[in-house]
Amino acid sequence: MIQAIGLTSIARKEQSPAVDNVSFEAHAGRVTALLGAPGAGKTTALRLMLELQRGRGVTYFRGRPLHRIPHPAHEVGVLLGDVPGHPARSVRGHLRMLCAASGVPARRADEVLEAVGLVSLRDERLGTLSRGMDRRLGLACALLPDPHTLVLDDPARGLAVGERRWLHDMLREHAAQGGTVLCSTADPKEATRFADHV
Prior knowledge:
Blueprint: E1 2-9, E2 22-26, E3 31-35, H1 42-49, E4 55-61, H2 72-75, E5 76-79, H3 91-102, H4 107-115, H5 131-143, E6 149-153, H6 161-176, E7 180-185, H7 188-194
Parallel strand pairs: 3-7, 5-6, 6-7
Antiparallel strand pairs: 1-2, 1-4
């Protein structure tokens, strides 16, 4: 379960904060959508939750703030933006590097490649991936350490209809296994299609 309490970003000069005293919960076993128009502060809220941006408020992941979790990647899988990595690195090589960094057995790279449907592209270079394949790789990176919670920033952005269905099924499967899933989206129709709670 995620509990976000009083999330507030730091205002720039004369402007109001992008996120001002936002609180919500995302429960285990459910897919929760954080819905808002482009520029409404969804990404900022996620960055505040993940302690990647300074501000006020606190977020608890199964009762603990992220900085109190010994191995945060094992608790919270994250997808914010495009997959960071050297464009010449192979898909499999990138995942194996993340395995080493996270203390996860190297075989886990092949397991998540299969789970996200990228086995046939394991030798492709990151710089050659289509938008849809990059999003699949981002989800693979988030799933790599088998986290309980997924926090995904607009994971369906740029995906074709079939890829969106596939993504929604993956998110539902994670929730059905008892995980917590929080996704941001600017599309109300999309939110109603994949989320249990908006």
